[in-house]
Design brief:
five-stranded antiparallel β-sheet; 4 helices; alpha+beta; disordered C terminus; 31% helix; 33% strand; 175 residues; three-stranded mixed β-sheet
């Protein structure tokens, strides 16, 4: 049975990433000019801050050097998070996107932009924003109905967290 380099690297590195409290989302080896680049994407339910990224990067680098898994040729190791507009491909991705606006490509055609309210084993409950003064509507999407899903970036989102932050700033200014 033949395995690709990415699969072998995943088998080697995934337990190490998991031991750091993170999930190994993606691994890729690319050639950039004469150099190779090993890109490792990690995430967790609480997100991955810079300290966690640095810690896992050091641990991965040590493991790769110890096992010589990348061979003798030079390579760069890049460790990061999935990014703001990442595709949702696994159940945990949908759970992590709760309260986020998502663009869904539906299996029967068409697309839908809605906010994920709740996720369970069968699908997602979403809220479709109202257009031109109409009220938002609730909808249920089963996972088989979803061909693709991608988180959308929101620049002007008004939520309870933003309101609380504004209140805290006003209280500090008054003090």
């Amino acid at each position: 049975m033949s395995t690709t380099q990415s699969e072998r690297l995943r088998e080697l590195l995934e337990p190490l990433v998991t031991s750091q409290g993170l999930d190994l989302e993606e691994i890729a080896v690319d050639s950039v000019g004469r150099k190779r680049v090993l890109r490792v994407v990690v995430d967790s339910d609480a997100g991955a801050d810079l300290d966690a990224i640095a810690d896992v990067s050091r641990a991965l680098s040590a493991k790769l050097d110890e096992t010589n898994a990348m061979g003798d040729a030079a390579y760069d190791l890049e460790v990061g998070t999935p990014g703001a507009e990442r595709p949702l491909t696994e159940h945990r991705h949908f759970v992590r996107a709760t309260d986020r606006l998502v663009k869904f490509q539906l299996t029967e055609g068409g697309e839908l932009v809605a906010r994920i309210l709740k996720v369970d084993d069968e699908g997602v409950d979403v809220e479709v924003p109202g257009v031109k003064g109409r009220k938002a509507t609730a909808r249920r999407l089963g996972f088989p109905e979803i061909a693709k899903a991608r988180v959308q970036v929101e620049f002007n989102r008004k939520d309870s967290a933003g309101t609380a932050g504004e209140k805290d700033m006003k209280e500090e200014e008054e003090a």
